[in-house]
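Model it.
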Amino acid sequence: MENVRLLFAYTCLHGEPECSSPGEVRSQPLVASQPGNVGFGMSRYPDGYKSYSRSKPLTIEEFDQEKKWWGGAERRGRKTNEFAWKVSTAEIVDRNYNLDVVGQNPHRAEVHHGDPEELVAEYQRVVDEVQLSQRTLKAELMNSLQGHHLSQAAKMLERHFDNAFAAPDGIKKLRELILTLAIQGKLLSQTPSDPPASEILREIERDKMRLIRDGKIKEPKPLPTVSPEERPYALPEGWEWVRMGDFTEIVRGITFPANEKTKEPGPGKIACLRTTNVQKELEWNDLLFIDRKFMGRTSQIVRLNDIVMSMANSRELVGKVAIVRKIPVAESTFGGFLGVIRTYRALPAYVHNVLNSRYARNSLIESASQTTNIANVSLGKLNTFLVPFPPRQEQQRIVAKIDQLMSVCDTIEKQIDASRKMQSVLLDALMAQFEGQ
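Modeled.
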């Protein structure tokens, strides 16, 4: 066996040397560095990466360390280090050729699990933080329901809140509840001194007439009046049911041949957003670039506070929205599967919250036309979509309250994640103590 040179394909699975199953480093053999030995190598994710994706792809530069270690065509200068080591073929045979066992990194740092009593105290502190945040969120929601004399709903929430909170998708459901209460006018008490929504709607109509007269927008087709039978639910005094097209401009994206797109900017080209860029926030690090000649009008250039919507996508993702909070390129347009919603006087963040609500998601998905694997929300359906429209001042208060409660949800999610990690660390420490006895 010692006279045989073993050759293995060089494959490199990324991971941290400290981790263990799942996500364990399964270092792969590079090549037999000399008769009777097999070389193993390990590579890590780049800083800031936990996995690869379209926006965080694997790059050839990540293999510079391995190429340098390899030593070029001469294969000289290779030495064992914290990322490369050798295992004898005799040990491989002795281990029944189990490379997952013999390929463990011998340079892995010794793990110090810590004192179990101290870890228990730390774990309890994290659990207490979760419970405090949970009580804070529950109290806020209870106050909202009781403030609107919804005593039955408040009692139901009080009775079932803890079970809902503990469910695997509990925080997601609580986020949905916050948005539902908000767009029904039940998250905050109304302020009688606020000018009613009808006043801002009249101002919007005057704004649109002026833009039409100045030739800045085309005169839209009149939308049907909202009949009492169409209204999904009762609204507080001062609110109005209004069609999306009555207070917004909706622009569909550009189309272009597939062979005209590139990942590199250049003269005469403009950045182009697509459906994969529409996440919880817009992602700007994976753009296409296309020739400006495919852009039909200036309204197809992205603006701050635009609401970008995925208008053609899978049934689960169609209608997904993100606000343009920044534009980190000189200019950007957007592709044909996207649309942009621009509000007149209405607060974009409020409309964004409405579109993220369960009411809007269900309505848009149900109204979407369906092909084999693509659902499409047409401009006609989006223009006639019914929006619960509060006074402008109340829109601002609602957005601020939603942000506050969603921040509590974010905190809870982080605390729950920290508590689960602490559980794992505590169990490791206890097992280490038992194994050491």
